[in-house]
Amino acid sequence: MLQSTMMQTRRQFIRTSLGATAAAVPVKWCRAEEVSPNLKIKLRVCVASDLHYGQKDTPYVKMADDLVGWVNEEKKTKGLDALFLNGDLTNDSSEALLILRDGPLSTLQVPFHTIKGNHDFIDEKPGSPTESWQKIWGYPSNHTVKYGDFVFIMADTSAPRKSDVYLAADLEWLKKELESHKDAPAIFVMIHIPQRKQGVEGWPQHGVHDVEEVGKAEAVMDLLESTGNVRGVFHGHNHDETAAYVSGEKRYFFDSHVGGSWGAKKGYRILEIYEDNRMLTYQMNAEDNIESNRDEIMG
Question: Is residue 268 part of a domain?
Fold first, then answer.
């Protein structure tokens, strides 16, 4: 059964090292210096978000091509098993989803998985090639994939059409997915919209804010933080954020953005799992080819 006990530290956002918590679990975060150079990587994935393909007055074609180049280079030089595109693939255009799918993304040299963002819309017209996420990508907007023993749950937090309302993830669907994978050594959850209202004990901007959604989103965080084998939650949406936050001993990671008209340096996040089940994550400022936040979570 899923655990229901709340941790006293659930709302504490702290600055800490990656190895500071969860030391007793089979799969654990670690510092870079704790990884032996002789250890082999058994899973290495990339998380990127916010391409905003089709956004007016931006070089969106080049930015999508840049992402594909960066990911393919990771595959060539260091090895890469998958790419997770964590929402806002496009900018309010269902047609752009097809152009992106059949254009730049078709040249990726690794499997990729898409999460629906608040700017990703379907047209819902019966028979349309973009009438559903399933029809576009071959899977629903809420879906789960596995790589070996490791589970990646992708939760939809987007409104059906253009809206200023950021949604909570589907709590009942999440419960079922977490329960069905309760024996996995690690679950990673991909959620485009941060589920905490901005400003609450240091939580960053652009989280769920609608009065009817805030309570639902907190229930989502309660669930994630009371599920022992959830090892990390990955967010997009906030183009300025490249670091991570801790709540209830769970880590919430951000990856800045690839496209769009504002934000930090463009880039992506890498997750590595080693043969002894140590985990390491860091942010890549791809514009300058600089790693950051490899050892420390910034709160």
Answer: yes
Task: Evaluate whether residue 20 is within a structural domain.
Answer: no
Q: Name the β-bridge partners of 53.
A: 90
Q: What angle do CA 84, 89, 94 make, to 5 degrees?
A: 135
d(Cα 270, Cα 291) in Å, to the nearest integer? 10
Residue type, 131: E
Bridging pattern class, strands 267-274 and 41-48: antiparallel
| Number of domain units in the chain | 1
CA distance 180 to 186: 13
Question: Residue 53 is part of which domain span?
Answer: 38-297
Tokens of 39: 């250890």
Asked if residue 55 belongs to a domain, the reply is: yes
Please write the tens of the pLDDT for every residue from 205-258.
Answer: 999 999 999 999 999 999 999 999 999 999 999 999 999 999 999 999 999 999
CATH number reported for the structural domain that contains residue 82 in this entry: 3.60.21.10
pLDDT of residue 299: 37
**CA separation (Å) from 146 to 41, 213, 231, 276?**
17, 29, 14, 19
Which residues, other chains included, contact 276 with Cβ-Cβ below 8 Å and sequence gap of 6+? 39
When comparing pLDDT for 16 and 92, which is higher? Answer: 92
Task: Give 280-291 pLDDT, tens digit per residue.
Answer: 999 999 999 999
Domain assignment present for residue 31? The answer is no
Classify residue 151 as exposed, middle or buried by CB count within 10 Å of its CB (0-12, 13-18, 19+). Answer: buried
Q: What is the pLDDT of residue 192?
A: 98
